[in-house]
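Q: Structure tokens for this one, please.
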Amino acid sequence: MTSLRWITSNVSRATLRAGVAFAFAVSMCGALAGCSKEPTAPGVHTLSGHVVLTGFLVGPDGQFAGTRVVGDADGVAVDLLYGTRVVAQTTTADGVYRFSGVSPGGYTTRARILDGIGDESNELTIAQADVNARDTLRIVSKGDLYPIPNPFETSMTVYFELPDTEQVSVKILDIAGQPVRTIFHGLFPKGLQSAYWDGHSQSGQDAVDPMYWVTFEGPGDREGGDYRAQLLFRRPPPGSAEEWPAYPPARAGGRRATP
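A: Here is the predicted structure, written as tokens:
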């Protein structure tokens, strides 16, 4: 009988110790997230990619003078979206955007100037490593909007066609899409129209950045509005590091630029 009580007592103590050890192991497993192949707490990673801008050059005579593609622009605004929600924003440096501290999940990136003028990536999935997106964001000048000349030195005139008398807004934006100057806001009659920019900001300061957007917003809603934007280049002063080629010779009786 004594032997039986000793065996029963020791088995009970061993069982209790095993149960306590198991409970401790389970609690530590949850705390350290080390006992499962699937992490219970997300890590953070970096998502990066590239933005390319495309603009069209126009000579002083209104002749199309070529296409300029810019892959190293600083300051282009890029959104990081989770579903339809913007969760982070950044700007490019040498044409590259970078989001740090991104948790695992499916995201898209977007760069745009106006509704319908910009680009959005396919879904980019972050799991257990950083992602360098191969899906380049490309913002291409769009619409019946002709800045003459482009590049400009101190001023330019932008031309556009209207199908009817319309309330329109013509603006200069910086490369990030922020307003610099409203050069016209009001009614324009049907036909070929123009708006002049003297190269100054709304506050009268010289606008000295190398690139801007000239934009046009006509009547309509987000889905059916008339949105146009052209990338506007400033010609650097003589002797600067970046040299622009001379405009081609003017052609008599030429047509208006049509990229």
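A few notes: The CA atoms of residues 11 and 17 lie 10 Å apart. The first helix runs from residue 2 to 32.
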